[in-house]
TrEMBL record:
Top-level enzyme category: hydrolase
Top-level taxon: Bacteria
Protein name: Dihydroorotase
Keyword Cell membrane: no
Length: 435
């Protein structure tokens, strides 16, 4: 479709390319869905004859975001979210590539289901959707899936989603198998036995609220084991979500020793802490739980340093029947696609992370990990672009979100930074409407 578009010139922009740390005034020229030129020399009227021009109004022009962790209900739980509604929420948040988790019904553990998701996304989604396939059959943690066949069918990573593979022998075999395909293994680093009945971070706040706590060791014990298995097998390993200072140190040591180990952090753990739970706000019951402020500051510092590789939305739609319950009975999960960038800009505004570094963790690095050609503004790359007013203030209204479910952790929060337009291969798929 993009091949029939005229050449397009995006000018009067603050170009931010996180892959090269370019941050300057200029423009981007696009032809047939691909970037052909970038720089300060591209101004209004500088394109070839017939060029369609987009005045960016001085706002940020950046590559679209790549979200490595989003839960989508289709197939099997379309009442929570569909590929169509998830993609609309993604576009509104500047996310041009979504990796959907395998926790569907049936789970994405066979090539035919990978194919179904890809076909369904092609027909209904307005952004790129790539499935992550299950690491074990039925997500049961016992029998490995056919990693080679699933990768051939289009799976970009292998994970059991919110379920940690607790059997070390199974994970060792998975890593050994995946190594031969250079496949990415993603594990949820949380020991279900140590979590037990816990529903929030273990500490004084949990005691005050009368809730069972989840110790940091539920995360670090699994992470430490996984890193040792990655060393043993030589596999590419990614810790889905880290949330505390101890985990940061484990990942730092692994990287310093040369292992193929990376990690992600949820936007929730970067921008919220356990105090935000307030009087039992169930939209903030999450896995991993929100930690204390010291841990939050530790993961922010690790992000700025580059120890943490990617930021994810951890988009997990839940309906009112699973959230309008006492805190200890509510389901884990929160929306994240639409507010991912706006929430991340809090860190830029506070001077804790630069804008190129934030965008690197939101686009360049995740694209590299799954081997897709996004996350950078350079000739030959796809024109998956976003125009962002980073100074636009607004209050989140869950009723205006594009997702089917409304469990946003930022409901009624004041955020700054709004995606004005989102383009896929140079084609406009979202434009902000003030009404």
């Amino acid at each position: 479709m993009s091949a029939f578009l005229p050449p397009q010139l995006f000018h009067n922009a603050r170009i931010v390319d996180p892959a090269t740390e370019r941050d300057e005034r200029g423009g981007v020229l696009v032809r047939a869905g691909l970037i052909v030129d970038v720089g300060p020399h591209l101004m209004a009227g500088s394109g070839p004859d017939g060029t369609q021009e987009h005045d960016c109004g001085g706002h940020v022009l950046a590559p679209g975001l790549v979200d490595l962790r989003a839960f989508v209900g289709e197939p099997g739980a379309e009442h929570r979210e569909t590929l169509k509604t998830a993609s609309e929420a993604a576009a509104a948040g500047g996310v041009t590539t979504v990796v959907c988790m395998p926790e569907t019904n049936p789970p994405i553990d066979e090539p035919a289901i990978v194919d179904f998701v890809l076909r369904r996304a092609r027909d209904t989604a307005i952004v790129h959707v790539h499935p992550a396939a299950a690491l074990t059959k039925e997500l049961a943690g016992r029998e490995l899936t056919e990693i080679g066949l699933l990768q051939e069918a289009g799976a970009v990573a292998f994970t059991d989603g919110t379920r940690a593979v607790t059997n070390a022998q199974v994970l060792r075999r998975a890593m050994t198998y995946a190594r031969d395909f250079d496949a990415l293994i993603i594990n949820h680093v949380e020991d279900p036995d140590l979590v037990g009945d816990g529903v929030m971070n273990e500490g004084a706040r949990a005691s005050l609220l009368g809730l069972h706590g989840i110790p940091r060791e539920a995360e670090t014990v699994v992470l430490e084991r996984d890193i040792r298995l990655a060393r043993l097998t030589g596999a590419r390993y990614h810790a889905a979500l880290v949330s505390c200072a101890d985990s940061v140190e484990i990942v730092r040591r692994a990287k310093d020793s040369g292992l193929k180990a990376t990690c992600g952090v949820s936007i929730n753990n970067l921008t919220l802490n356990e105090i935000d739970i307030g009087d039992y706000r169930t939209f903030l019951r999450l896995s991993p739980p929100l930690r204390d402020e010291d841990d939050r500051q530790a993961v922010i510092a690790a992000l700025a340093e580059g120890v943490i590789d990617v930021i994810v939305s951890d988009h997990n739609p839940q309906d009112v029947e699973t959230k309008r319950l006492p805190f200890s009975e509510a389901a884990n999960g929160a929306l994240g696609l639409e507010t991912l960038l706006s929430a991340g800009l809090r860190l830029v505004e506070a001077g804790q992370v630069t804008l190129p570094r934030l965008l690197h963790a939101l686009s360049t690095r995740p694209a590299q990990l799954i081997g897709v050609p996004g996350g950078q503004l350079s000739a030959g790359k796809p024109a998956d672009l976003i125009i962002v007013d980073i100074d636009f203030p607004y209050v989140v209204d869950k009723l205006k979100l594009h997702s089917k479910s409304k469990n946003s952790p930022f409901d009624e929060a004041r955020l700054t930074g709004r995606v004005l337009k989102t383009f896929i291969a140079g084609r406009l798929v979202y434009a902000y409407d003030e009404q």
